[in-house]
Amino acid sequence: MNPISENQQQALVSRLMQACGGSYSPATRRKYFISGPQWAAAYQGQALFHAPTRPELGFEAIIRKFGELGIGHWATHDTDVIPTDALGTDRQAEIVARIQAALKQNGVACSMVTTETFFHAVWAGGPAAEAAEVREYARFRVRNAVAMGHELGASYAVYWPGSLGYYVQGAIDETESLRWYADAINAACEHDIEVARAKNRNTLKHCLEAKPFEPQAEILLPTSDAMLAFIASGLLTHPQMVGLNPEYLHELMWGAAPRAALARALLAGKLFHFDVNDGYRLKHDVDIGVGLVNPLDWLNVLVLLRSHGYNGPFNLDYKPPRTTSQFGVFEVSFPTCVDRFITLWEMAGEVIADPIIKEATDALKRGGPVAGGHDADAIARANRELLTLHELIAHRLVQILLGLHRGRTFSIA
Ligand code: XLS
Ligand code: MG
Ligand code: MG
Asked: For strand 165-166 and strand 156-159, is the pairing parallel, antiparallel, or unpaired?
């Protein structure tokens, strides 16, 4: 086999992408509330055991690429774009002005800003550390991110607490840490109310994001359910402004059914924002592109969200694999990710409209005739044949996923 010379490789990748077909136009992609995070596109492939495999890109190049691809929204951590020592200074204002110009020029809107409270050494003891200075600094950071969000036209602020937890037991008092963390969220909401009033804008939707492990050994708010309890704990001064940003994989990581976790958030009226990606149960945060691992589960997640009118962002919080080159990040990774999402979303529409699923679901709800009373055997008998429809519905969902409902069959001659 002849080696493929370096200067022919991009052309090969592009030709095979073309051959795959099935991609949507940028105009179609823009119809969906999809956001691309700065950090996902800028990710260099590094990790604890991994050296970077591609150079970092700045926001100007990323926003331009998102605009070309039809990713209509952009999201960022404060320190993805503002060096830590420039936060809150005139340099921040200059950078924000450059971001505004890049967004405008490329027809991209900023949907969300998030505060990095995990990377810098100042967070070694977490964002709600014992030292009052750290906690005052955390309040400064979230207030500053809220102000930045308003400047950039965002509607959402996300908080992934990161290192709110511990490595070694007994060194912190969990109740104290949680109270201190609430102080930061309260500071963000209070500042938001002031800024929104001054700018005549709506306040932001403040979205808490849970992750069960990483980057601490033990996490104080490990799941979306724990976050719901935190919101309802009485510690927040503006709980109505605070909801959730569940991440698909973060729920899977602790062994949950993401769809059930989302359903609980929907019931509480707290599903504000959604980080979309994929990965494996009970493993670390591999942040694989949506639909590459669990397409059937994803289809079902989107059926739930479509049928309950979720209208928040779908934030592509994944990491292009380190085997993908920088060319590949925009040639393959982002467009295929967006297009799988759109396909699954449209398929979810097909599921909702499917006459077989509809009739089966209705029949299950009608149930069989029972004389009344509390005769357990009679009730079980009355529904026995109908309950087979559960499996039939599951089969139909797979048919829709595989396109078999359109008459495609396979047989060995
Ligand atoms: C990390 C989180 C992070 C948040 C934003 O695991 O997913 O990317 O979404 O800080
Ligand atoms: Mg996330
Ligand atoms: Mg993740």
From this structure: unpaired
- 74, 103 contact by CB (below 8 A): yes
pLDDT of 413 higher than 90 = no
What distance in Å separates the CA atoms of residue 133 and residue 128, rounded to the nearest whole number?
10
Return all residues near 258 (Cβ < 8 A) that are at least 6 apart: 246, 248, 251, 252, 297, 301
Query: For a pLDDT cut of 90, what percent of the chain falls above it?
Result: 97
In short, whether 319's Cβ falls inside 6 Å of ligand 1 is no
Give yes or no for residue 372 having a pLDDT over 90.
no
Sign of torsion over alpha carbons 179, 180, 183, 184: negative
Burial label for 388, CB within 10 Å (0-12, 13-18, 19+), is: exposed
Q: Does the C-beta of 160 come closer than 6 Å to ligand 1?
A: yes
Q: Does residue 323 contact residue 288 with C-beta atoms inside 8 Å? A: no
Say what the pTM is: 0.97
The pairs formed by 360-368 with CB atoms below 8 angstroms and a separation of 24 or more are 360/389, 360/392, 360/393, 360/396, 361/389, 361/393, 363/389, 364/389, 364/390
Closest-CA residue, ligand 1 atom 5, reads: 160
Q: Cα–Cα distance between 406 and 349 in angstroms, integer?
A: 15
